[in-house]
Design brief:
mainly beta; Immunoglobulin-like; 5 domains; five-stranded antiparallel beta sheet; 48 strands; globular
Length: about 700
């Protein structure tokens, strides 16, 4: 697997489109509903997992003004039953409290019949802050701030006071994706034409010590190309790396016999499953945690069928790039504008993408989180992303099934729906690439029966502004000079519409991309490989072809090109800093590769490894943007001669080389000299140029 140095600048962080009148945020909670949690406990052999999502609408100050509380309760009763209540109450564990957020489930007009299997799912939504008689906004705000003081419970005819309950558990969310192919199976299946894009959404709740209290894994896959007819016999997550067959760990339940699923018409269709994680199963817990930290090394996902029972299509799961777009859809934005309609729809459009080797979007998952505000009950007949600038009615390129499977007739409510864009969807992929580079090229709108051509609409962003590149320096460093191969940070404004790093890249991409979200960089006229782009910062590698001297740095976006200049030398060492406040450098003990710090000091005579950038071309040479190959025998990619001083004293250098499996990263091993102690300065020098000074903690 290809890697880069994990420094803060490489982290992909959430980006919004700027301050809006309203902002949309969804906060998830989980609940393990058990009879033993009731007050007093009940004796029914039942359980349920509750997913509570609070869809918030915040005003321009960040205060909660309205929203929806969405209940998804996956239950298992021992036999047929009748549910007569589903509510959130305010009270601590072990205390019976008053209902503060009721659903419309009740014994007289809206009871829910549980069939003989005892299993099922309840989906309900409760509005607040949009009309009289709804839950008070202050109650919801308090629940968000103090979830342990609130519980969800379910009532039945046998237990009208409550059959089972759970306190609300704050949940974390991650989304991982995969491009499933028969060529990824072990062994590959070259005769198969099947493929799929899979999205796996994971919710987990942890206690204060990191132990998992609850988790739900939601599988979604849009598949095509299976023989028609055929039957799907498995859809699983396995805990294994690429090229290795491993056991099933998280199972959707598709299997032999009655649980098998026929493919859709023409061998295409969608699979959707919510799977409850057994938190007492250490392997399942490890996989869920792995999906948060390193999904590609942890796990793969595959689909089995009757033709290939061992698996037809497969891929390693991988992290995604993420862009969060905040808009408010209005009738005045429609083409033509709609007069006299007092409606709006604050919305968050979240785009998760995985990338091709060149950095372009390969596939994606788009989540629409729309809070409709209409003057009266209305049917929603469409929710789409269209290509087109402001004032132009363009074609739908990313649609949803609102209007068929997800019609709503509420005047106010939340529509939360996901849409996949597969690699075979040329129009959808083009839209994702275009809007991530220039969001003004696309718009989102909501259609109704009264306004079938669109009732409320918003562009996904404003027209691009020319970038302004203000300065460049080696990453996490005060040194201003650059060298070929340096990891350089370029600072400025309007440098990208959305942040992106290498998160969505395939684990086996051969080289760094030269474009991300429509951003490209040239240094000395040479195209620079990219690690990271964002509105305020770009991380790139100085091409090895760049010659010494004063060279231009040109940043190009959809808004234009901005240039600045920097001095390039054969070597310009810069030591990475781990702890900026204490100026602690990226220096590890050679003995165990632990970070040298105030609580992990080294001794005189110890060998330490100093990680830096800016040491220039190596022998043998490495190529721009490519990952240094592991050594063959004793052959390393050695740097120019390097010297090290510790507290002004010369230190013996054992080696200095480019780090295998990385790019732009160098390691220099040196011996802590005698006569030094305490927090002392360390400086690395190459080609006559001294690095920044970092602190080394010596006993």
């Amino acid at each position: 697997m290809r890697k880069i140095l994990a420094v803060p600048a490489f982290a992909c962080f959430l980006l919004t489109m700027g301050l809006r009148a309203d902002t949309v945020v969804t906060v998830p909670f989980l609940g393990n509903m058990l009879p033993a949690n009731e007050t007093p406990p009940t004796n029914i052999n039942a359980s349920a997992t509750a997913i509570i999502q609070v869809h918030e609408v915040l005003d321009s100050t960040g205060a909660l003004k309205s929203g929806s509380v969405e209940f998804t309760v996956i239950y298992k009763f021992p036999a047929a039953n009748t549910v007569v209540g589903l509510h959130i109450h305010k009270a601590a564990a072990g205390v019976a409290g008053a209902i503060v957020i009721p659903t419309d489930v009740n014994a007289t007009t809206n009871a829910i019949t549980v069939d003989a299997t005892g299993a099922g799912t309840i989906n309900k939504q409760v509005q607040f802050g949009t009309a009289a008689g709804q839950p008070d906004v202050a109650i919801v705000a308090d629940m968000l701030a103090n979830p342990a003081n609130y519980y969800v419970n379910i009532h039945t005819t046998d237990f009208p006071g409550g059959a089972m309950r759970s306190q609300l558990l704050p949940a974390q969310r991650t989304v991982v994706m995969a491009q499933m192919s028969p060529l990824n199976e072990v062994p590959p299946i070259p005769t198969s034409k099947a493929s799929a894009i899979a999205s796996v959404r994971v919710l987990r709740a942890l206690d204060s010590t990191g132990n998992m209290l609850s988790a739900v894994v939601t599988f979604d896959a849009n598949y095509t190309g299976f023989p028609d007819p055929t039957t799907l016999t498995g859809f699983h997550i396995h805990n294994g790396p690429a090229g290795v067959n491993a056991g099933v760990v998280i199972n959707t339940g598709i299997g032999a016999g009655a649980a098998s699923v026929p493919t859709g018409p023409g061998g295409a269709g969608n699979l959707h499953y919510d799977v409850l994680v057994a938190t007492n199963n250490a392997t399942q817990v490890a996989v869920v945690n792995g999906l948060f930290t390193n999904p590609t090394s942890c796990c793969y996902i595959n689909i089995h069928n009757t033709v290939n029972g061992g698996g037809e299509i497969r891929d390693q799961l991988r992290t995604t790039d993420f862009a969060n777009i905040q808009v408010t859809m209005l009738p005045s934005n429609e083409t033509p504008p709609i007069a006299g309609l007092n409606a709006s729809a604050p919305a968050a459009v979240s785009v998760y993408t995985i990338r091709n080797a060149d950095g372009s979007v390969a596939a994606g998952s788009t989540n629409f989180d729309v809070n409709a505000r209409f003057p009266a009950a209305i049917k929603f007949t469409g929710l789409h992303i269209h290509n087109g600038p402001a004032g132009v009615a363009g074609p739908v390129t990313i649609g949803t099934d609102v209007g068929s499977n997800n019609v709503s007739s509420d005047a106010n409510g939340n529509i939360s729906i996901n849409r996949w864009v597969t690699s075979g969807d040329a129009a959808g992929v083009a839209t994702l690439n275009n809007l991530l580079a220039n969001p003004s090229t696309a718009y989102v709108n909501l259609h109704t029966t009264d306004n079938p051509g669109g009732a409320v609409r918003s562009q996904l962003g404003s027209a691009p502004v020319a970038p302004s590149a203000a300065g460049a320096a080696p990453d996490v460093s005060t040194v201003k000079n650059l060298a070929p191969g340096t990891i350089v940070s370029i600072y400025g404004s309007n440098l990208a519409a959305f942040a992106a790093d290498l998160s969505g890249m395939s684990p086996f991409f051969p080289a760094l991309p030269t474009g991300l979200n429509g951003v490209s960089v040239k240094i000395g006229g040479n195209t620079a490989p990219l690690f990271y782009v964002s509105p305020g910062q770009i991380n790139a590698e100085v091409p090895f072809e760049t010659t010494a001297g004063n060279q231009s740095i040109a940043v190009t976006t959809a808004g234009g090109t901005s240039t600045l200049s920097a001095t390039v030398s054969a070597a310009a060492p810069s030591i990475f800093i781990i702890d900026v406040a204490n100026n602690v450098g990226a220096i590890l003990k050679n003995a165990d590769m632990s970070l040298v710090a105030a609580n992990n000091k080294v001794k005189v005579g110890d060998v330490v490894v100093v990680f830096s950038t800016g040491l220039g071309q190596t022998t043998p040479a490495v190529q721009t943007g490519t990952f240094v190959q592991p050594p063959s025998g004793t052959s390393f990619n050695n740097t120019v001669p390097v010297t090290v001083t510790v507290d002004g004293k010369s230190a013996t250098v054992m080696y200095s080389m480019a780090v295998p499996n990385f790019t732009g990263l160098y390691a220099t091993a040196t011996v802590v000299p005698s006569g030094v102690s305490g927090p002392v300065p360390l400086v690395l020098t190459a080609g006559g140029a001294a690095s920044n000074t970092v602190t080394l903690n010596v006993q």
